[in-house]
Each structure stands twice: as structure tokens, then as C-alpha cells.
DNA sequence: CGCATGATTCAACATTCGTTGAATTGGATC
DNA sequence: GATCCAATTCAACGAATGTTGAATCATGCG
């Protein structure tokens, strides 16, 4: 845990805990939560492994700190789109969800790897915290689907919780698997794989949930527009 | 590797390599590929860790042996359904794919965990083998989609490779995440979560790919009918 | 300067891991 | 019964892991 706030002074702290988190994020992304070693994280951060224990209580605490700085911004943006007064069409709002999700998670395989792998294990340890972080996100997206039904844009018999699950989960799979699978299975380059994958997916998904599946989608804004401020640490 | 074939005799071999694989499958399923220890596998199998090295060359070799006995049966059943002469409707054939997939993978979280986690890492080590195993499966399902377009059952602009990806991947997610997520997010019991999840998913997916999304689905056979012979080792 | 205190490093701990070589068991064959 | 050999166990190796307590460094304040 960071100590007392420093009153003044040029730069007495050489290693900001955030720099350690950056390193941790990268190593977690590369090796996965379990296989990532504190020594590798320390090496990435350019400090001693023991220093990590000065700033964080444990490896797990460091990870929850990672969650704590990643999820709230996502939730905040989602809640804006989920505002019941939002005048945009349901299709556009859902596409906006995809864009938010995309911007925040594209450059952070560590969080994705966690969501993918660690929730499955069940109720031990981190999972409770994850639920606390993820539930509001799920509920925000779900409320858009609920509003879509009320507005008559979506089919009335849509299972909105599962609909949310499908949308969010498949997005993660597209981010994780398509860049490595599609180039091998067909000739597509990495970036284009994700781009087309998401568009094809959204089109299929929309037909699945829309009350009028054959009505053409409105023009969708670019995915890559105004990228979020995720530190891309590739030295 | 198993030694020379034994000419006769009652039961000179006490520990069948398959029994070790059964144990490995269970421990891999519980702890994941990396975290599963040979000592835990040996304990589960009721033998010494060193015995594993008598029957298998390494931990990795044991895992590829696991793949080798799990994937071919799946592929074999899928290729029957993918036969171009199959008279059933495309919807029914795809539902049959779901049932096959479901029967073989429901009780084997280890393989799912592998597919989920290990492919992402890229081209190192096991991934090549996985691709060899998985590619024919993907292609079998894809050919059903291609035939569906030719027959006029599916929309002509369907991206069949991505369509296959969506179908198969979301199925895995449903098997892995719904049993732990849905009971927490709503009140659903475990088994029912997967059951309804798969039905809702297939309905949504079909509307997404069908040429006539609003035409009602034919009655779908039960998922749980004639379960496959997967040893459920829960002592 | 001297000293207190936060920041960082060093060295080591107990544990667990995958793996291996030697030793032991036990049934089949002579 | 002696022998052979596959099957199994025992004990240990070296490496890697999360973690910790003591020691060291560097800076701000008196």
C-alpha cells in the first residue's frame, strides 16, 4: 500500500506503483495470471521483486489493484450509453457498447485472460471481486436490451441476460482468438481479422435479437475512432 | 510408452495407461493445464508420480495423448452430419452439431480449458498439434454452412468460417461460464442454466444466419438424449 | 552536517514443480 | 525353485515460486 502523501519535493519516489502495475499488466497478459512470476514482473518494471511487496500486499492484491483501475472507466462509459433518455436507436447504442468494450479491452489481454479463465474456477478467491466488478457492467448492457424491447426495436421474447452474455463474451473471444486463428485458417492479417470479425458478429447478433431482422443496420461509426488512453507498453 | 504386447495372463498390469489419462483429465479439468501437477495426477490415479514417466514421455506427451483420444470421435460424428447427401434441413443438421459437441465436451472441462486458453498463446509447443486436431472439426462444420447456402437455407452473404467460429466458440463459453455465472446472476440451477443457454443461443444464432430469420425452427431433439460414453470419474 | 524515514535491494526461507536413476516388486516362464 | 523382465516405487536432484526480514540507499528536515 502506498504510504503517506508526500508534501513537496522533486522526485523522491523512483518507482511509482502504477509503473509496477503497468509491468504486471504486461506480464499477466503474456503469461497468464498463474504463470506470471513476481520476478518476471519485477524485471519488466526494472526493480527488485521485494519492492513489489512494499507497494502491494501480495500477488493477488496487485491483481485486484489492476482490476480496480481498469473496470470503473468502462462502467462509467457504459452507464452513459445505458441512460434511458438516450435518443439513439437501439442498434446504434449496442454498437456503441461494442466500441467502448473494444477500446478498453483491445490492448489489455491480461484482463481478458482473467475474465476468460479465472471466473470458471468458481467461487474461490478472486472470483467474488470479479463479480462485484463485472455485475454492474452486465446490468448496464442488459438495461439497453430491456429498453430496446420496450421501444419495440428488439423481439419481445429476447432473454436479455443471455443476450448480454452472448454479446460481451463473443467480443472477448473475437479479440483473443481471431488474431491468432484467422490468419492461420485463412490468409487474413491480424488487424483485419478482428475488424471484420466484429462487424460480421454484430450483424449476425443484431439479426438474432432485432424485432425486424431484415431491416438494414444504420451506418456504424468506425471502431477505431478516438482510441482510449491505454498505455501501450511495448518497449 | 506401453511396452511389448503381453501374450496371455490374467492381470499382470495393475495400472492401465488409460487410468492415468482418466486421472490426468480430471486434474487438468480442475486445475488447468499449467497448474495441474504430476503429483496430483499420480495421487488421483493412485500411483507414484514416477510411474507416469514409465508410460508417458512427459507431461506434455500425456496431454497430447489426451487430445488423441478425445478429438477423433468428435470429428468422426461431425463428418457423418456434414455428409453432403444428408437429407435433413440445415437447421436440424446444425442442431445435431450442437448435440455432438455438447455430448463430447460437456464432461471434459480439461479439453475446453485447453482450447480456451492455450490457443491464445500463439504458435508455441502444443498449439500446432491443436490446430491439426481442430482444423478438420472446423472445416466439417463449415461445410454444413456452405451447403446451407447452396440449398438456399442460409443467407448468401454469410461468412461461413466466422459463422463456424461463432457457433463453436459460444458453445464452449456456455458450457464453461453459464453454470457458474447464471446461478449467481439470476436464480437458475446449474443444469438448467446450460440447457436454456444453449437453446436461447441456438435460436439467436439461427436467426442470424438463416435466409428467412422469422420462419419458425423445426422441433429440436433433446440435448441430453443418448449421452456419450465419457467416464464420469467422481469417486 | 546528522538523522529520521521512506524507498529499494539482498539474501535467504520453505515449498512445489518436472524429471530421473536406482532399487524393488511380482507374475510368467523355464 | 530360479530366473527374467515388465511394472512400480523410492529418494533425490535442480530449478522456480511466493514471501520475508534485515540491510542499504537516498532524500527531506533540523
Could you describe the 3D structure shown?
2 copies of one chain form a homodimer. Helix content of chain A is 64%, strand content 0%. With 235 residues, chain A is mainly alpha-helical. Chain A folds into 2 domains: 47 residues, Arc Repressor Mutant, subunit A, CATH 1.10.10; 143 residues, Orthogonal Bundle (Tetracycline Repressor, domain 2), CATH 1.10.357.10. In chain A, helix 4 packs antiparallel against helix 5. The longest helix of chain A is centred in the last third of the chain and has 26 residues. The N terminus and C terminus of chain A are likely disordered. At the A-B interface, helix 6, helix 7, helix 8 and helix 9 of A face helix 6, helix 7, helix 8 and helix 9 of B. The structure holds a DNA duplex (30 and 30 nucleotides).
Amino acid at each position: 500500500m502506498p504510504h503517506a502523501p508526500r508534501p513537496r519535493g522533486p522526485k523522491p519516489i523512483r518507482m511509482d506503483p502504477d509503473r509496477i502495475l503497468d509491468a504486471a499488466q504486461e506480464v499477466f497478459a503474456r503469461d497468464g495470471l498463474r504463470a506470471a512470476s513476481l520476478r518476471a514482473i519485477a524485471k519488466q518494471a526494472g526493480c527488485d521483486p521485494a519492492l513489489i511487496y512494499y507497494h502491494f500486499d501480495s500477488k493477488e492484491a496487485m491483481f485486484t489493484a489492476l482490476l480496480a483501475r481498469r473496470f470503473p472507466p468502462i462502467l462509467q462509459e457504459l452507464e452513459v450509453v445505458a441512460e434511458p433518455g438516450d435518443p439513439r436507436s437501439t442498434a446504434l447504442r449496442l454498437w456503441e457498447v461494442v466500441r467502448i468494450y473494444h477500446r478498453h479491452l483491445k490492448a489489455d489481454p491480461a484482463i481478458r485472460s482473467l475474465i476468460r479463465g479465472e471466473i470458471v474456477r468458481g467461487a474461490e478467491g478472486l472470483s467474488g471481486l470479479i463479480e462485484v466488478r463485472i455485475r454492474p457492467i452486465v446490468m448496464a448492457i442488459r438495461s439497453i436490451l430491456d429498453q430496446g424491447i420496450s421501444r419495440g426495436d428488439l423481439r419481445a421474447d429476447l432473454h436479455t441476460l443471455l443476450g448480454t452474455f452472448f454479446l460481451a463474451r463473443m467480443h472477448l473471444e473475437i479479440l483473443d482468438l481471431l488474431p491468432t486463428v484467422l490468419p492461420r485458417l485463412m490468409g487474413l492479417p491480424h488487424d483485419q481479422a478482428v475488424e471484420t470479425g466484429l462487424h460480421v458478429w454484430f450483424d449476425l447478433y443484431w439479426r438474432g435479437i432485432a424485432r425486424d431482422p431484415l431491416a438494414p443496420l444504420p451506418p456504424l461509426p468506425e471502431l477505431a475512432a478516438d482510441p482510449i488512453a491505454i498505455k501501450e507498453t511495448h518497449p
